[in-house]
Amino acid sequence: MPGKLKVLDYGMGWAKWSIMAKAFGLKVYGYDVLDSIKDFAKKNNISVFNNIADIKNHKFHFINIEEVISYIPEPYELLQVLSNSLEDGGIMYITTPNSSLAKSKLNTNDWI
């Protein structure tokens, strides 16, 4: 039953995934570092966490992390917190940028 599933969109950006999940009837929570994004998500009726400590008090059936893990200063610590926030049998879905593209950029002189 979708209404019983609790999901977290970590690093939600402009909350497109969160809004879609909410449209399917899921209980959606989001986290992002930018206040403007948090405000946008709240205006779209997404429950928003203000810090990682608040996430520790919840359990989720699904955690979505798209294209943000490479920007996290301590990804292992984050993944420990998020793993502990999964319900038994829960799923954490992580995507990262295309590594072949990153490798090709390293072979040029125009990157920072």
How does this structure look, described?
With 112 residues, this protein is α/β, with parallel strands linked by helices. The chain has five helices and five strands. A five-stranded parallel β-sheet has the order 3-2-1-4-5, with helices on both faces. β1, α1 (16-23) and β2 form a beta-alpha-beta unit. The longest helix is centred in the last third of the chain and has 10 residues, at 75-84. It is globular. The relative contact order is 0.17. The model has no long low-confidence stretch (mean pLDDT 89).
Percentage beta strand: 25-35%
Q: What is the first-to-last residue Cα distance?
A: 47 Å
Q: Helicity range of the residues? A: 25-40%
Order of helices and strands: EHEHEHEHEH
Q: Indicate the mean pLDDT.
A: 89
Poorly predicted regions are: none
Major pleated sheet: 5 strands, parallel
Spatial arrangement of strands, main beta sheet: 3-2-1-4-5
Shape: globular
Task: Output the radius of gyration.
Answer: 15 Å
H/I helix tally: 5
Number of strands: 5
Q: In terms of structural class, how would the helical and strand content be classed?
A: alpha/beta
